[in-house]
Design brief:
By secondary structure, this protein is of the alpha/beta class. It has nine helices and twelve strands. Helix content is about 20%, strand content about 20%.
Amino acid sequence: MPCAPRRSVALLLALVFVAASCSSDGDDTSAAESTDTTAAADTTEAPETAEADDSAEATEAAETTDESETDEEADTTEAPAVGEGCQVDTGIGRISSEAGGPIQGAQVYVPTTFDGTLLPVVINWHGLGSDGPQQALFTDYEALAEREGFIAVHPTGTPGPGDNRNSWELIQLDIPNRDDIAFANDLIDQLIADFCVDESRVYSTGMSNGGFFTSRLLCDMADRIAAGVSVAGLSHPDECDPSRAVPFMAFHGTADLVVPFAGGESSLLEGEATEDFTEFFAQVMPDEFSEFAADFGCELEPEVSEIGVETIRYDYLGCDDDVPLIFYEVTEGGHTWPSSPLGPLLLDTLGYTTTDVDATADGWAFMSQFSLTP
């Protein structure tokens, strides 16, 4: 659920300034903040240090001006099909939504190779206390989106009552006067309408609290999410009732002290746990994943294989509609994003980051195989 402890700030900020100064070009028209991606260094802070900016205003995509040819006899003009002749600025843009309660925003990256055709999209949800731009840096998803030709979206949540850390609402930890499922639905609607997104290829991934939220989307929005990848956090609550079998992958380290692999006391709580939080962190990560496998009619005993020298892969076979379910257990892995470019700097704060697998590249390769339409 959480992101990172607040240490190693100076060193990590130095890396972020360097990384940000090399980021892709793009326009940011938000009145609340601006991001210079062409010359000056980006001032986005590192994943574990800065509070989120949840007040970014919407960046409207340019409306299409292409019209169908006029029939000479009928003298009528057809409206273009969705995605036909789309005109969207490439690079970084921003949108926002009031759906679900508070205003929440998202950073949207459109690859420079965009040619007006419908593109798949990956929505990448941050951890507790982080924000969308930080998650983009932490996972390097925008660079992959540029290479592979998809849209990468990094939303920013808002703090819950009595907390100053940005978060995503979970089934077990309901937030009054807030509905993040409504926000997620509205976000997808906007992406389809304004950014030429292929509605059959909407994917979800996330870290920690964002990983938990991705697993919630499988429970509540299986009709809109073509595939999902959770990193360092997932949950299958009793109320979870997916409308279909969803391709799902997860990564979790056995030495994660924030979201314990086998359940237990989280370092996040520091002895001040409420009953709800104690119960929440008692969840055993591989068991939670296997409950999705049971929902989807998979064989209960997974096929086990070794990946590299420190990662074990569990494949659940025979699932409904032949969807794959894959769980990666990282031996002695910390509360980390496998192969994160920031991993080496976070060893003392989040624990060891494996390079046996890559939660970004491998996650995209997994999700991109699937579509909601045959």
